[in-house]
Amino acid sequence: MAVKKVKVDAEEKAVKAAPAKTVSVKKETAKKVVEKPVASKPSVKVKPTPSVVPVMTRTVAPALAAQETKKLTAQEIVELKDLLLTLRERVSGEFHTLSRDNLDANQRDASLSDQGTDTFDREMELNMMGSEQEVLFEIDAALRRIEKGTYGICELTGLPINIERLQALPYVRYTVRAQSELEKGRARFRPFGGTMRG
User: Which range is least confidently modeled, 16-20, 73-77, 138-142, 154-158?
Assistant: First the structure.
């Protein structure tokens, strides 16, 4: 053990004998900041905005404008009425077929494994029946407008509806522009009170 003690004492003496390191601290002096003269920027003149802002207008091609303002002839109304009656007959037949199929499906005693599929099919048929019923309502309303003499006139703007639009969708109530405004602003609402009676 004496040997170990001697080694430790020798190491302590070596540490004590070593000169202590000194750290010198320099004082930093603040450098003077010399301000450079700033070059003046040329002033930009701002034009005052006019109180009336010009509105961009869109011109409609003369042929298109003429089509929008053209009223239906008696011959066109007769053709569109025939189209409405044919469409009504077809939609009515589809409606009755769907309702009959739905009743037949309800009367069958389905197995438990088929009930989910049958329920899904029944819901799809009911949705289609609702759509068909709405189309029938619109067709009947269009036929009433023919009898009143207001068929082919937009219910919102009072402008004539384009003949091509009526040929594509003969029960339409609005011009393209009025329909798009309705779809932008609010949900479609159809009162059932007075319109069902005619």
Answer: 16-20
- Length in residues, the chain: 198
Matching residue, tokens 């603040």: 30
At residue 164, what are phi and psi to the nearest 5 degrees? -65, -35
Q: How far is 98 from 82, CA to CA, in rounded Å?
A: 24
In sequence order, the β-bridge partners of residue 160 are 153
Tokens of 176: 């393209």
Say if residues 94 and 132 touch (Cβ distance below 8 Å).
yes
Residue 93 has which token pair?
């037949």
User: How does pLDDT run across 81-107, given as a tens digit for each residue?
Assistant: 999 999 999 888 776 676 666 666 655
pTM: 0.50
SS3 4: helix
Check if the beta carbon of residue 106 is closer than 8 Å to that of residue 123. no
The fold adopted by the segment(s) 67-185 is Four Helix Bundle (Hemerythrin (Met), subunit A) (1.20.120)
- pLDDT at residue 64, rounded to an integer: 44
Mean pLDDT across 161-178? 93
